[in-house]
Amino acid sequence: MIKIWKVNMIMKRLKFCIVVLSILIINLSFSLTSLAQSKQALENFENQLKPLTDSMINAKIDNQRYAANEKFLILFEDILSYPKTFSYSFEQLNNISILTPSDKRFRIYTWYVVNDFGEYENFGFVQSENKDEKEMQVYRLHDRSDEIIMPEGAKLDDSIWFGAVYYDIITTKNEDITYYTLLGWDGKDIYSQRKVIEPLSIKSSNGKPVFGASVFYREKDRKRCIFEYSPNATFLLKYDNQYTETIDRKKIKRKGKQQYINDTIRERNYMIVYDSLQSLFDGFDNLPQYNVGAYQYNGFRFEKGKWRRITGVVPRNLPNKEKDKINADPTVDDKRTNVKGEKGRLF
Question: What is the pLDDT of residue 73?
Answer without folding.
Answer: 97
